[in-house]
Amino acid sequence: MLEKDKLYSIWVYLQAEPLFWLTLTIGSYLIGDYCYKRSKLFPLVNPVMISIFIVSIILLKLNISYERYFDGAKFIHFMLGPVTVALAIPIYKQFSLIKKEAKIIFISLILGSLFAITSTFLLCKFFSIDEKVLLSMLPKSATAPIAMGISDLIGGIPSLTAIVTILTGIIGASFGTFALDFLKLKDMSARGFGLGLASHGIGTARAMSRNRTAGVFAALALGLNGIATAIIVPLLFKLFSFF
Questions:
Q1: What is the mean pLDDT of the chain?
Q2: DSSP 36
Q3: Where are the domains of the chain?
Q4: Residue 135's closest CA among 243, 242, 241?
Q5: Which among 17, 54, 107, 132 would be 20 to 30 A from 63, CA to CA?
Q6: CA distance 46 to 35
């Protein structure tokens, strides 16, 4: 009985400490990354998906609120900004190649961004999805912070947008490789740009793990699609309202 009381006291102390939740988040990702590497980088063994699953199960089993967890893990959230900005370094190193492909990049960006937004709108309308949910889903192909900002601007639910955006990233990174293989697309810059465009940060991480050139173009697509979505969604918002 004394041992149980001692263990309970230790647990109460640990779960109140921010470092515990930071350690849990990093540890869960390392487990996911280990599984990913052991699978020889098989797309469906996504380390982000695995880490989300582990953390979610622990929070649900221990009845821990998301707010308490986030108080400890918010340092990782803070680091998303600097890490995203740091992607400019490999892009700068490949700037001459990017400049050469500028026209194709621009056309792919506009078509890809428009397709992601309009296909989401049409599917939501087809299945009679609630308007607030529809507005929350429209910017799902932009990176999460930008998507949440757009969602808030047009009357969506930013927290729902974050979930849908992360799911989009995981699905795109997991199945995107199979789609590109099916299309017999061999060029690494095109493959990377496609992954970054469709599945933002998670797709970029996937591309980076496979090929440096693919990673650079995925990072470029991530940034450009964030800008394009932030411009296109509000412009099309009024058009959609007529339907």
A1: 83
A2: H
A3: 1-79, 86-243
A4: 241
A5: 132
A6: 8
